[in-house]
């Protein structure tokens, strides 16, 4: 059956309604043949190391140089292999992270008519809702999202920022500011790990770099063997910072053609490389394919922040990372986010479309 944007909402009940009724998911949600990896497995040694980013986040750090260097080496190793790590020492208190989770849960627990006040417009990504339909062959995700731009500040669409729960706006604003500091420090650390001038990556983001928050809600699903919360994809960002559910796992990353679950560490933040950083690093840092599985018994929430360059700003490999031994792998690009989203919905790998 063809799926057209205007028809999408009328095809079935919402994911939440189907979840509450224990319905069999409609065919549009069933994941068919996937070209991304084989059966799940859990290695004895996690490929997602725990990294204390406080050791290299401050130039005036009181930690010995060797300690900072050791952590930077771990950072380089993680981002050039699995493309993902668990960050501690990020300076955000456990109690505040719990507040972020709480307001997310409270928002998604609101009556549907209240949430619909913040619904995204057709063919827009900001606001509350589920997938935009961009392809007739698109497999739908078993999830709802609230997506809000947080930077630049003058681009915030405050009419889409929920008034309830009462604390959500304040907490989101504070959390966004903390994540912006964290990502800037990470970009500097990533540059230093490759022996680059520390602003080599950060300068490519521009004065009006984007940051988007996405609150994710994954209801229970009667067929977790057939349906995904989010289908396999890479992120369009420079880096993505994810606060996982406090208890329920769901995120999996493709490592050596195997799906590996990312364990829950309640007050760590999961950091992964996005496609635009893979381009800037000339393929040294890897943007990992990842997905979210569904759960038969437990709902799950998470909160992701995506850090991106200004859309109209051209990005490309740092010159000193290109030589005769490592030629330039990707074309310089602008507005990469649009390329990535369309490829995601069509089951294509966006980075392959900008390779030389």
Strand content: 15-25%
Principal-axes shape call: globular
Structural class: alpha+beta
Mean pLDDT: 91
**Helix fraction?**
10-25%
Can you list the strand order of the major beta sheet? 2-3-11-8-13-6-5-4
Task: Summarize the structure in short.
With 356 residues, the protein is an alpha+beta fold.
Considering the chains and any ligands shown, give keywords for the structure.
25% helix, eight-stranded mixed beta sheet, disordered N terminus, 13 strands, 356 residues, five-stranded mixed beta sheet, alpha+beta
Plain-language structure description:
The chain is an alpha+beta fold and 356 residues long. It is globular and about 60 Å long. The N terminus is likely disordered. The chain has 8 helices and 13 strands. Helix 3 crosses helix 6 and helix 4 crosses helix 6. 25% of the residues lie in helices and 19% in strands. The protein has an 8-stranded mixed sheet. Strands 1-10-9-12-7 form a 5-stranded mixed sheet, with no helix packed on it.
């Amino acid at each position: 059956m063809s799926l057209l944007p205007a028809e999408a909402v009328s095809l079935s009940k919402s994911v939440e309604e189907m979840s509450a009724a224990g319905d069999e998911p409609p065919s549009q949600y069933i994941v068919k043949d996937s070209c991304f990896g084989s059966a799940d497995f859990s290695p004895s040694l996690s490929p997602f190391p725990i990294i204390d980013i406080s050791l290299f986040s401050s130039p005036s750090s009181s930690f010995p140089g060797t300690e900072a260097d050791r952590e930077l080496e771990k950072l380089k190793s993680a981002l050039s292999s699995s493309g993902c790590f668990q960050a501690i020492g990020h300076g955000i208190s456990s109690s505040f992270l719990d507040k972020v989770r709480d307001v997310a849960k409270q928002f998604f627990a609101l009556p549907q008519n209240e949430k619909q006040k913040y619904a995204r417009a057709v063919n827009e990504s900001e606001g509350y809702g589920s997938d935009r339909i961009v392809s007739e062959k698109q497999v739908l995700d078993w999830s709802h999202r609230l997506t809000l731009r947080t930077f630049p500040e003058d681009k915030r669409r405050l009419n889409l920022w929920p008034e309830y729960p009462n604390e959500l706006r304040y907490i989101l604003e504070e959390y966004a500011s903390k994540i912006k500091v964290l990502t800037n420090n990470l970009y500097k650390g990533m540059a230093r790990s490759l022996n680059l001038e520390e602003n080599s990556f950060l300068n490519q983001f521009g004065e009006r770099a984007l940051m988007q928050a996405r609150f994710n809600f994954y209801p229970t699903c009667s067929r977790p063997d057939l349906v995904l919360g989010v289908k396999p994809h890479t992120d369009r960002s420079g880096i993505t910072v994810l606060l996982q559910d406090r208890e329920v796992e769901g995120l999996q990353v493709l490592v050596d053609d195997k799906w590996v679950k990312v364990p829950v560490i309640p007050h760590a933040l999961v950091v992964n490389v996005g496609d635009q950083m893979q381009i800037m690093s000339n393929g040294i840092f890897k943007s990992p394919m990842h997905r979210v599985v569904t759960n038969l018994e437990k709902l799950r929430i998470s909160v992701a922040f995506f850090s991106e360059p200004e859309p109209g700003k051209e990005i490309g490999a740092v010159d000193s990372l290109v030589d005769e031994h490592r030629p330039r792998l990707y074309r310089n690009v602008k507005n990469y986010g649009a390329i990535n989203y369309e490829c995601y919905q069509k089951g294509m790998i966006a980075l392959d479309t900008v390779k030389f």
